[in-house]
Amino acid sequence: MSQHSMRLTFLPILFFALILGIAACSPKQESPEPIRSVKLWTVGSTDLNVQGEYAAEVRARTESRLGFRVGGKILMRQAEPGQRVQAGQVLAEVDVQDYALAAQAAQAQVIGALAQRDLAASDFKRYEALLAQNFISAAELERRSASLKAAQSSLDQAQSHAQSLVNQAGYAKLLATTSGVVTGVDAEPGQVVSAGQPVLRFAQDGPRDAVFAVPEHVVGRLKLGQKMSVTVGNTTQTFHGQVREIGASADAATRTFMVKLALDKAESLSLGMTLNVQAPQLAGSQSDVIKLPTSALRQESNQTTVWVYDPQTSTVLSQVVQVATADGNDVVIASGLKPGQQVVSAGVHVLSPGQKVTVYNAAALATRVTK
To answer: Is residue 107 domain-shared with residue 145, that is, in the same domain?
Structure first.
């Protein structure tokens, strides 16, 4: 091959290699960050009314756990959950044999003590007659009198002990003190229970309570004696009552406080029925407050902030706010915002100051100013 031909073949290869080198040395262009779409909440003033409707349960005013006054093995249980019983009705029994034997032994001791007392009384009368005839001294009669008093004390003690054992034999039967409903069972036949151990749960007939739970921001505004009204389920039947008890501590799981509402003339309501309690406007209600959903808040250092949307530049700016209180899933803002501003209500943790955004479903964005 001639030198001219080799030069013609080598030139295209050299040109192609030069193009590749230039391309490799060129800086890579970074792809622009995608513009995020955000949901906006238009700030508006509204009223904070500490009121609401709560689901309540009908309970007896007086509920108790019944147990035997003596220990023993349960022989039978005549009451079942949900059963209505009358005053004096036998609910359960424990084995009474040992108590009956003890009562018989105590009665025998009474008979023996009675004989000793009668003997001492006869001696005293005889010695009293002898003293009248000056056959004995007064000191001897005093000794007989002391013996009679001691015998009488022994008899009284034996009788009291015997009566106590008779009573214990009677305690082997668990009786209903008043009429009511058995709401639960804590022990079964064949089980050995101690004195006072709960066997049955019992709800007495009579006044009824509506029991319901309220959140932390409401409980502090309830007062004893405060009047409320309730309706039965989805009916129009209405009862009135007043707060008689407010829980002193929150439930460990739900962080709510139990409230008991004493109902007027509600003895006809069945236990366990569902009621709707209408709590009226309470102390702490305010007008013209700013509320935001909790999803709009974020923590920046030790401050609570929100993203404020600037419609002129379509960017977001961080704004420090002060939270006054909670209202369900919303928070009440004390300062930092004014009506008409728009804040980001979702996805606040993926934004940065000055970031450009687009409004999600901007056509459907409605002003939430209520006043």
So the answer is: yes
- Residues facing 25 on adjacent strands: none
Distance CA(169)–CA(66), nearest Å, equals 17
Residue 147 vs residues 116, 117, 140: alpha-carbon distances, Å: 10, 9, 11
The domain in which residue 257 lies consists of 52-60+204-279
Task: Look at the block and give the residue holding tokens 């050299």.
Answer: 14
34-52: per-residue pLDDT in tens? Answer: 778 888 988 887 766 555 6
DSSP state of 331: E
**Pseudo-torsion of CA 140, 145, 150, 152, nearest 10°?**
150
Contacts of 310 (CB under 8 A, 6+ apart): 316, 317
Q: Which residues contact 152 (CB under 8 A, 6 or more apart)?
A: 117, 120
CA gap 61, 253 in Å, rounded = 25
Number of domains in the chain: 4
Instruction: For residue 141, tell me if it sits in a domain.
Output: yes
83 plus 181 within the same structural domain: yes
Starting at the edge strand found earlier in the chain, the sheet holding 84-85 runs: 63-67, 198-204, 180-185, 84-85
C-alpha to C-alpha distance for 235 and 231, rounded to whole angstroms:
7
The answer for residues whose C-beta is within 8 angstroms of residue 54's C-beta and 6 or more apart is 212, 213, 214, 276, 277, 279
Q: For residue 149, what pLDDT is reported?
A: 94
Residues 87 and 183 both lie in one domain: yes
Q: Which burial class, exposed, middle or buried, applies to 25 when counting CB atoms under 10 A from its CB (0-12, 13-18, 19+)?
A: exposed
Which of 203, 223, 248 delimits the end of a domain?
203
| Residue-wise pLDDT tens digits, 41-84 | 888 877 665 556 788 999 999 999 999 999 999 999 999 998 99
Does residue 233 sit in the same domain as residue 259? yes
- Domain annotation covers residue 18: no
The answer on 323 and 225 residing in a single domain is no
Give the residues of the chain that fall short of pLDDT 50: 8, 23, 364-371
Count CB-CB contacts under 10 A for residue 182: 21
Q: How far apart are CA 168 and CA 71, in angstroms?
A: 10
List the structure tokens of 313: 């530049």
